[in-house]
Please model this.
Amino acid sequence: MVGLFSFSWQCKIILTISRIVLGTAVGGASALVPLYLAEMASAKYRSTLSTLNQLMITIGILSAYMVNLSFANYPYGWRIMLGFAALPAAQYYLEVLYTCLKAQDGL
Model:
């Protein structure tokens, strides 16, 4: 819900507050995910999972820069960049939907 308010460019106060809330949420997630992985993994795989988590984040950031660089000189290229950013979110949504429907069939 906060994400919807972060697009409010007309009111600077709402924009600032929503960006602070979203930044805190992303910061918390980036701190808690490695902790959760380290706690849940067995000792044999703990370091591998932590390393892979950081590696995948770094590869994702590099991929985003590469895609954005390729569309930087297009007119309205920011729309294409935003569309590419929505693809992983849409894929994740469809995977969660499929998993929930599959779980309901098994009940």
